[in-house]
Amino acid sequence: MEALLWSLLLLLLQAAKGYSGNDVATEEVVAVFQESISLPLEIPADEEVEDIIWSSYGRLATVVLGKETQLATVMVANPRYEGRVSFLDTSNSLHISNLSWEDSGPYQAQVNLRTSQISTMQHYNLRVYRRLSEPRVTVNFEIAQEDGCNISLTCSVEKAGLDVTYSWISWEDGMDTVHESSALSTSWRPGDNAVSYTCRASNPVSSITSRLIPAGLFCADLGFPLKKATYFCLLAKGLLLLLLIVILAAGLWLIRAQKRCQMPRMRKLKRNRLWLKKKEKPRPSLA
Ligand SMILES: *[C@@H]1O[C@H](CO)[C@@H](O)[C@H](O)[C@H]1NC(C)=O
Ligand SMILES: *[C@@H]1O[C@H](CO)[C@@H](O)[C@H](O)[C@H]1NC(C)=O
């Protein structure tokens, strides 16, 4: 039973690696734009390698392996790869640096063995992708008559390239729901739970999420239709400025009112003193 399971697993693994029966298998390799990649070779341990011929749409480079402690020598045939390829003796792999979009495509390595005088072929398919930048989210909402609002969220990434998948993740009471699409439509009514959304963009070399979008925020406390989130921001800023002006005006008015209250009392005091002086003066003449 266990042996059967193992052989099934092996079959599955081979299917996943793209084996098609004979020894021609294509290894899928993904790499990052302007970074580097290693194309690994499988060389039988008891075999001595004479040379390896690398090609991709024509001859790329010939690697002649050194004997014993000598290092391999690399002769680059395609000028587009000049200065960018090297052979790593330790891992028997071809290293290509500063990858460009033109580097994607099929690669072959023909390994010529010295001892058995045969050669084996290894095939690769290289795909180059850019690391994705943070997704940009566009929020559109419409306020309905009965206080509710319909929200549509759209997620995009600049210079996304190929093989990008988008998903929306909504968070409600610690539970998350995944919606596989770049666009999401939802609605919100006053009293509904606060639901937050994030968008995740992925490609074969990266995965990045947007900041959290609290959807209810766009709909709550707005009595009139606003089409875009930016308008809401402008309105908030305007209200804040108005509030500042009101506070300033109230402060000025209070200061002036206080001055006006103090002035009549001072005048009264002066008058009282004058009256006292007048009253005191006649006294000596009387005596
Ligand atoms: C990588 O290649 C581009 C052209 O494809 C070149 O402009 C750039 O200078 C290279 N960068 C490095 C680090 O070699
Ligand atoms: C919101 O969507 C519902 C259907 O989901 C629709 O019946 C309603 O008219 C929409 N409201 C607005 C204001 O667009």
TrEMBL record:
Per the UniProt entry, the signal peptide is 1-18
Q: Which domain of life is it from?
A: Eukaryota
Q: Which residues form the Ig-like domain?
A: 135-209
Where are the membrane-spanning stretches?
234-255
Entries under InterPro entries matching the protein: CD2/SLAM_rcpt, Ig-like_dom, Ig-like_dom_sf, Ig-like_fold
Name the keywords, alphabetized. Answer: Glycoprotein, Membrane, Signal, Transmembrane, Transmembrane helix
Compartments annotated for it: namely: Membrane
- Keyword Transferase listed? The answer is no
Q: Name one GO biological process term.
A: T cell activation
Protein's name according to its UniProt entry:
SLAM family member 9
Q: Which organism is it from?
A: Callorhinus ursinus (Northern fur seal)
